[in-house]
Design goal:
This protein is α/β, with parallel strands linked by helices and 123 residues long. The protein has a single domain, classed as Leucine Aminopeptidase, subunit E, domain 1. The chain contains four helices and five strands. Strands 2-3-1-4-5 form a five-stranded mixed β-sheet, sandwiched between helices.
Length: 123
């Protein structure tokens, strides 16, 4: 762990992080995804290496659509485990209460941060 961050993954684990549409992975989880897990500079959406980018910076409807696409991807890949960071809540403009509801009904291979789980439990 690097100050609370995932620093190593098993071969079947995917690091899910918030990105911007342009894929400028300069800070936070995006930087870790780029430096450690195969995120590609200039690619702000989808699977690259052992990372999956979700655009959280354009606007909330875009983020919601990208989360929905991600969840479909997770269902289609039950052999993988997706480790979701607090997307949109660090450098991004949201709080867990804004993002977590988009993950209600996530498949079992999607591991959510405790802050998202708490929001889902309390709703």
């Amino acid at each position: 762990m690097l100050a609370g961050w995932v620093t190593d993954l098993d071969p079947t684990e995917i690091f899910v992080f918030g990105s911007n549409a342009g894929g400028a992975h300069g800070g936070g989880a995006a930087r870790i995804a780029h430096d450690r897990f195969g995120a590609v500079w200039g690619e702000g959406h989808g699977l690259h290496g052992q990372s999956y980018a979700i655009d959280t910076m354009t606007d909330e409807p875009t983020m919601a659509a990208e989360i929905a696409s991600f969840l479909e991807f997770a269902v289609a890949h039950p052999d993988l485990t997706f480790l979701v960071t607090e997307i949109g809540c660090g450098i991004g403009p949201y709080q867990p209460r804004d993002v977590a509801p988009h993950f209600v009904g996530a498949p079992g291979n999607v591991a959510l941060p405790e802050s998202f789980l708490a929001v889902i439990r309390d709703s």
